[in-house]
Every structure is written in C-alpha cells, then in structure tokens.
Amino acid sequence: MTTTVIMNETKKPVLHVSCVPRKDTTLLKISLSQDDLGILFRVTSVLYIHGWDILEAVAETSHEGHVQDLFVIRSWNGGEMTESLLSQIRKDLYSLFYEEKSVEEYLRDHGKGEVLVRKVGDPEASLKLYNPISSDFTVMDLRMKDNTGILFQITEALFHLGIDIISFTANSSDGKIRDSFLLRTSLTGEKLDEKTMFPLLRSRLENFL
Q1: Which of 40, 72, 112, 154 fits 56 for a cystine, CB–CB 3.0-4.6 Å?
Q2: 3-state DSSP call for residue 69?
Q3: Rounded Cα–Cα distance for residues 192 and 117 (Å)
C-alpha cells in the first residue's frame, strides 16, 4: 500500500515597490499579496523616516485580494528617489508588513519616537466629518497649518480605531494644508457611524491638533 503525502507550500508574501519620476514629484507604486488594515499608516511612517511627504494616495484591491496602492510623494529637500533608497524603503516596508515589526518600534529604532505623542497645537485647525448620501464612504476634511509628520499621526489614529483609508489627497498653500480622506470601517466595509465613530475619531484627532 502506497501512501501519498501532499505538502502544502507556504507562499512567501509578495511586496513589490516601484516608482515613476515626475517633474516635481514621484509616483510610488506598492503591491501587496493581501489586503491589510493600516497600509497608509505603515507607508507614511517609512516615508517620514526617509524624508518624503505623501501628497496623494489611492488604494486598489483586486477580486483575488491583491492590493496596489499608488502614492504621489515629494522629498522634503528636493531629493530624488534613487535605486538604493527605493531598495531600503522596500526592506523597511517588508519588515512592517510581514516580519511583525510594529510602527512604534520602527520609529523608535530611528530616533523618531517623539512623533507618537507630540501635539501640533493649531488653534485654527478645522475638522469636518460627513456621510454623503451618494457615496459608500465617509469623508473627512482637515484644514490646518502644514507640519512635518502630521499625516503619520492622522493615519495612526485611524489605524487604532479600525478605520480603512480608501483614498487621500493633500493640498497646501501659504503654510496651510487641506487633507481629504475617504474612509470606511475595516470590520464591515461601511461608512462610519455618526453617533459612535464620529465622536471617537474627532476626540482622537483633537488630542494632537
């Protein structure tokens, strides 16, 4: 009697990172083998460490669960995205996505732990949350003074509240920024509940604005 043993191969998680240079910005493409909460949170932390701002982000998920996120980014000092830098960004992201390294640990390893608890202190900051009838997502608009690392703090708050970011755009002028987000709950994929989640999110953000 012959017994056949079938071994299930464990597929290594896929992370593909590439970029397309533009005139004043860079288009960063990140592909993951599976969707996950907090993609923008992790990407923001890595780009913050390497001195890059995210101006726009769009998440795309296939029916098979593969994720491709597109980010329009810009260097703080006008630098270019080199092959060695892109390779380091990929290495850092892989550690955060697939090697169970937390963002908090990653930031502290690079001497940036203070961003986790700092307060921006902008008395003119304006936060709007609303659920459009014609959309499946919650809209969040934030206007405030421009501040390095603020997007990281916002994405951290959303991550810990279990909120998915579907898209993000940033506009800046005269030292002010307007950040717009399309959000949904990660648990149900629906809009945020106005009676429960709106107050929680507003309280969390106002802690550091």
Answers
A1: 72
A2: strand
A3: 25
Contact criterion met (CB below 8 Å) for 117 and 64: no
What Rg do the C-alpha atoms of the chain give, in angstroms?
Answer: 19
Give, in order, the Cα–Cα distances in Å from 181 to each of 4, 59, 155: 53, 12, 10
Round to whole Å and give the CA distance between 45 and 36: 16
pTM of the complete model beyond 0.70: yes
Contact 32, 11 (CB under 8 A): no
Q: Give the relative orientation of helices 39-49 and 150-160 as an angle to the nearest 10 degrees.
A: 150
**Residue 85's closest CA among 142, 28, 163, 162?**
28
pLDDT tens column, 49-73? 999 988 888 877 655 656 788 899 9
Q: What are the residues facing 183 on neighbouring strands?
A: 138, 165
DSSP state of 114: G
Per DSSP (E only), the strands in the chain are 15-21, 26-32, 52-61, 67-75, 126-130, 138-145, 163-173, 176-185
Beta bridge partners of 182: 139, 167
Q: What angle do CA 137, 120, 42 make, to 5 degrees?
A: 50
For CA atoms 88, 89, 94, 96, give the dihedral sign. Answer: positive
Q: By C-alpha distance, which of 149, 150, 168, 180 is closest to 39? A: 168
d(CA 204, CA 209): 9
Paired tokens of 129: 């949350």
